[in-house]
Amino acid sequence: MKKPDLAKRKKVMGRSIRLGHCVCDPSKPCPCPMFQHHNVCLCAGEHLPVKGPVDVKLTRHVRSAGCASKIGQEDLHAVLSKLPKVTDKRLVIGLATADDAGVFEIRPGTLLVQTVDVFTPGVDDPYTFGRIAACNALSDVYAMGGGPVTALSIIGFPIHTLPHSAMTAILRGGMDVLGEAGAVLVGGHSINDDEVKFGLAVTGLVTRSALTTNAAAKPGDVLILTKPLGTGIIALAGQLGRASARAQKAAAESMATLNRRAAELMVRHRVKAATDVTGFGLLGHLTRMMLESKATAEIAFDALPLLPDTLDYATAGMYSGANERNASFSEKHTRFASNMTEAEQAVLYDAQTSGGLLMSVPPLRAGALLKALHAEGIPHAAIIGRVTLPSSRAVKVERSAENVFGNISAC
Ligand code: CO
Ligand code: CO
Fold it and tell me: From ligand 2's centre to the CA of 357, what distance in Å?
């Protein structure tokens, strides 16, 4: 360890001792427990020796992983509903419809798409976490049919206890994904935080004709989901040390994949209604889409693409507390077929990190779009249900696709 600068230490600690509180963390006395046990004064800029390269396991440094760290829809609504309404003629999509991103017309015909997403790691590897967080943040621009242009990074990192190399790796992961998206990192903000967090504020562009919203699903449409479900369940199983390498690898690969190609194909096939599946789970995002579109969705559980082992882990009770939060919003809008198990319902509530796009597609174009998605390297894309006229519930879940589509082929 470097020799402490005793003059500096004396100066800072003198102030702390006079005040009776540590000046860096007033909840602690001076000398603080760190000083007493390790002879290190953080206020004087001293560090515990951080040995590098160290194999940092990021999920050990968070409470709830990934999008499960989100505030639930009910709490969020209670808070946001107390705020004044934003009315500006240039605001095309604001908070009111709970869409994926805000859309603002800066000049006639030029729409800005803006979104911010920050969350805690659901994987241990810092570089992979950086990639996933960036894919997740960019996804909200893709869900609006837009293309990202610039991004600002936001990072919380325990700079005194984890090696700097881990923070570098997180940021590099984010930058690599921005490169793949054709977007540019223009700046950022960092916080010395007990819990690791990372994300991006992204600005994109979209034209009026390409704009996709969560309020434009039409009865008769077919629902397509582009990525398999189960990232939250696998992350929790991983934190408990019970996830298979196969499941963790598949989840990490899926989360670290951009929705760029899927969005481009969606726009080319003139889809008007889309969202992405993230922290509120498939049911939460689908419910929101149906409420905003004033329609009902019928989905089939056996048509859903799932990550490996997801249903096994759910059956063993390995789903996070975020499920209860998601259920408290979606449950009252959903009718489950009576033969659905609790584990199957848990998959539908599971908070997804960097999940797929959920598109509502006119039936005549659904087959061609699905084919194009498969051909362009999005193999898990699947038709999961259809949109009907509004009924008493926003979403109906059947066990089998036959009950949703009858004998007619979906395409
Ligand atoms: Co979203
Ligand atoms: Co978001």
Answer: 12
**Rounded distance between C-alpha atoms, residue 353 and residue 251, angstroms:** 9
Distance 410 CA to ligand 1 centre (A): 26
| Per-residue pLDDT tens digits for 356-386 | 999 999 999 999 999 999 999 999 999 999 9
> For 144, which DSSP code?
T
CA of 357 to the centre of ligand 1 (A): 9
Q: What is the predicted pLDDT for the residue at 51?
A: 57
Q: What is the DSSP string of 219-242?
A: TT-EEEE-S-B-HHHHHHHHHTT-
pLDDT tier at 103, thresholds 50, 70, 90 = very high
Output helix, strand, coil percentages for the chain, rounded to the nearest 5: 40, 20, 40
Q: Specify the higher pLDDT residue, 407 or 264.
A: 264
User: Which ligand sits nearest to residue 202's alpha carbon?
Assistant: 2
In the reported structure, the alpha carbon of residue 29 is separated from the centroid of ligand 2 by a whole-number distance in angstroms of 40
Q: What is the overall mean pLDDT for the chain?
A: 91
Mean pLDDT of 155-163: 92
User: Pseudo-torsion of CA 278, 168, 171, 121, nearest 10°?
Assistant: 10
Residue 97 CA, ligand 1 centroid: distance in Å = 12
Report the amino acid identity of residue 195.
E
The CA distance from 62 to 150, in Å, is 28
DSSP lists the bridge partners of residue 357 as: 276
CA of 280 to the centre of ligand 1 (A): 9
In percent, the amount of the chain with pLDDT more than 70 equals 95
Strands (E), 70-121: 91-93, 102-107, 110-119
Please tell me the number of the ligand nearest to residue 116's CA: 2
Please give the positions annotated as active site. Answer: 67
**pLDDT per position as a tens digit, 238-281:** 988 999 999 999 999 999 999 999 999 999 999 999 999 999 99
What does the H/E/C string look like for 321-353?
A: CHHHHHHHHHHHHEEECCCCCHHHHHHHHCCCC
pTM for this predicted structure: 0.86
**What is the pLDDT averaged over residues 98-116?**
92
- Hey, what amino acid is at 258? L
Residues surrounding ion ligand 2 at CB below 5 Å: 117, 140
Cis bond before residue 4 (omega within 30° of 0): no
What is the average pLDDT across 217-229? 98
